[in-house]
Design a protein that fits this description.
single chain, about 190 residues, alpha+beta, 6 helices, 7 strands
């Protein structure tokens, strides 16, 4: 079975909140740089949900359409990338697929500079940064990645189109397997 990364639709951004809350304690610390409460996650997600045009989310879902991994691009003057993968799905290459997808999307949309921040002990994300030629430097226990992407070429746009279509097909096939999700429950 191949792993498909798809773009999250703005009307699904609420699922990001559930994903973040289900991260184990260590994964939350690696994602946010320190322990974070569910209340802080709620406030963060409220901002994201209220301004979806300022954020791009990509996800990997299980067969029940629950997010098991998310790549988040916070758009702004200096875009920032962040990634989270549930513990049971770590070390399976999902983070690499998410980063590939986010980087390609940025290149296709001419977003060629940005940042990433992580704890110095987050070796997995640091390896992904190095793989994508993201320059790293460490200050006060945090590692900062300076993202400088190459300009897009024809392959970038073709790959983005293929990835988008694969994401749609994957979502629809999973949704078809869950027919009851097409019909809302009656109150």
């Amino acid at each position: 079975m191949s792993i498909i990364v798809r773009r999250v639709l703005p009307n699904e951004y609420h699922k990001y909140r559930s994903h973040l809350k289900l991260l184990d304690t260590d994964s939350k610390v690696l994602r946010f740089g320190s322990h974070i409460s569910d209340e802080v996650i709620d406030k963060l997600c409220e901002k994201i949900e209220s301004s979806p045009s300022d954020h791009v989310l990509f996800c990997v879902e299980d067969d029940k359409l629950n997010f098991i991994a998310v790549g988040h691009i916070a758009l702004g003057q200096e875009p920032e990338l962040a990634f989270s993968v549930h513990r049971a799905h770590q070390r399976k290459g999902i983070g690499a697929l998410l980063m590939d997808r986010c980087v390609n999307w940025c290149r296709a949309h001419n977003i060629l500079q940005g940042t990433m921040m992580c704890l110095s002990r987050n070796t997995a994300i640091k390896r992904l940064c190095i793989k994508h030629n993201i320059q790293l430097h460490t200050e006060s226990g945090e590692t900062i990645g300076n993202i400088k992407l190459s300009t897009p070429d024809a392959t970038t746009f073709i790959q983005e189109n293929i990835n988008s279509n694969l994401g749609i097909i994957d979502y629809l096939s999973k949704r078809t397997m869950l027919l009851w999700t097409f019909f809302p429950e009656k109150p």
